[in-house]
Amino acid sequence: MAKEYEVVIGLEVHVELATKTKIFCGCSTAFGGAPNTHTCPVCTGMPGSLPVLNKKVVEYATAVGLATNCTITQNCKFDRKNYFYPDNPQNYQISQLYLPICRDGHVDITLADGTEKSIRIHEIHMEEDAGKLVHDDWEDCSLVDYNRSGVPLIEIVSEPDMRSAEEVIAYLDKLRMTVQYLGASDCKLQEGSMRADVNLSVREKGATEFGTRTETKNLNSFSAISRCIENEVARQIDLIESGEKVIQETRRWDDDKEYSYAMRSKEDAQDYRYFPDPDLVPIHISDEWLEEIRSNQPEFREEKCARYKEEFGLPEYDINIITDSKKLADIFEQTTAICGNPKKVSNWIMGETMRLLKEKSMDATDIKFSPENLAKLINLVEGGSINGAVLFIWLRLLLLI
Ligand SMILES: [Zn+2]
């Protein structure tokens, strides 16, 4: 009889925080820009430069921790993770090893069949992003852009609690939604503001010990993550069945070719010679500050869904689509407040707006029209001054302005 296997998955999710400036200097975090124009002596690792912590990073990290049921480490600090790579000009990354800002949380997910499950969060820590290497095969050289160097990140490390690609996607979606509602990041996988590394092992069903795990990087869409998980599960089972060993290593997923390859053997923390960063003072989050952050937490998706049902009497289908993006929910609420017709507003958002976004491959966060303008247009249709077709043309124009 064929053996049955169980998949064990843990995730490390990096989220770029939506601060205007970098974590330890005043350089802009804006995406894009000519190479090396958002840089200064601090984020290019010049000798003698000193980092100064951006307070907003601590607030965002704490807010995400509170929203994911973590305990906040009110006295924490930064450590240096030492390694050499050309995209890392200091030869160390400022991160947190010993006292991460958030610990022991959990995120509750609901699967398609209605099953509910709690995924534990081991920790969330703050760190800085590295620069970007551009390999130029034509000129046979590599170029480096430090615009991203020093952009603030949080790394959300889960426990190995997930057992399928479906659970992984449900967990990531919940995280993405929570962080977006907090305004802590736009969480765009395709632009790298949310990145997931998948730690995966398989074991025989019923076994209590974990198998050897691999870590796969470079996953920039939910569908790539699903494909990578399926592929890695099959690869590991093949190895085990043919009597070979799974090697603990870091792998890279090539989504075009739909296969992964080994990058390097997996490092342990001791390989990085972590030590407390002597240039930064310890962080103290006072009870008052923590309370202030807690009291500023927004209405999250579940609460919004319940309120939309109660206050506007919207069908569940509409509610799910509108609350799938904080931006759409904001537009819906503000437009409804002006024109007072929730179902009409919902129809225009779900129908024509979503159709246009899809057609232009745009994200809800790219919507530029204002709730005032949408409300005016809806009122014109309702009053009979223009018809739906004209409104659709206006929406199309407004979306592009
Ligand atoms: Zn800088």
Keywords:
2 domains; 401 residues; alpha+beta; 3-stranded antiparallel β-sheet
Chain-wise SSE layout:
Elements: E1 5-16, H1 55-67, E2 71-72, E3 75-76, E4 79-82, E5 92-95, E6 102-110, E7 116-128, E8 132-136, E9 141-145, E10 152-158, H2 165-182, E11 194-204, E12 214-219, H3 222-241, E13 249-254, E14 259-265, E15 275-276, E16 283-284, H4 287-295, H5 301-312, H6 316-322, H7 326-339, H8 342-359, H9 371-382, H10 388-400
Parallel strand pairs: 12-13
Antiparallel strand pairs: 1-10, 1-11, 2-6, 3-16, 4-5, 4-15, 6-7, 7-10, 8-9, 11-12, 13-14
The chain binds zinc ion.
**Pattern of helices and strands:** EHEEEEEEEEEHEEHEEEEHHHHHHH
Number of helices: 10
| Radius of gyration computed on alpha carbons | 23 Å
The number of domains: 2
pLDDT averaged residue by residue: 91
Distance from first to last alpha carbon: 63 Å
How many strands appear in the DSSP assignment? 16
How much helix, percentage-wise, in residues? 25-40%
The set of bound ligands, ions and cofactors reads:
zinc ion
Main sheet? Answer: 9 strands, mixed
Major β-sheet strand ordering: 2-6-7-10-1-11-12-13-14
* Proportion of beta-strand residues: 15-25%
Shape: globular
Weakly predicted, low-confidence segments: none
Structural class by SSE content: alpha+beta
Question: How does this model look, in words?
Answer:
- The chain starts with a strand and ends with a helix.
- The protein has 10 helices and 16 strands.
- The radius of gyration is 23 Å and the shape is globular.
- The mean pLDDT is 91.
- 34% of the residues lie in helices and 24% in strands.
- 32% of the residues are buried.
- Strands 2-6-7-10-1-11-12-13-14 form a 9-stranded mixed beta sheet.
- The chain folds into 2 domains: 5-292, no CATH class; 299-400, no CATH class.
- It has helices at 55-67, 165-182, 222-241, 287-295, 301-312, 316-322, 326-339, 342-359, 371-382, 388-400; strands spanning 5-16, 71-72, 75-76, 79-82, 92-95, 102-110, 116-128, 132-136, 141-145, 152-158, 194-204, 214-219, 249-254, 259-265, 275-276, 283-284.
- Zinc ion (ZN) binds at residues 22, 25, 27, 39-40, 42-43, 150.
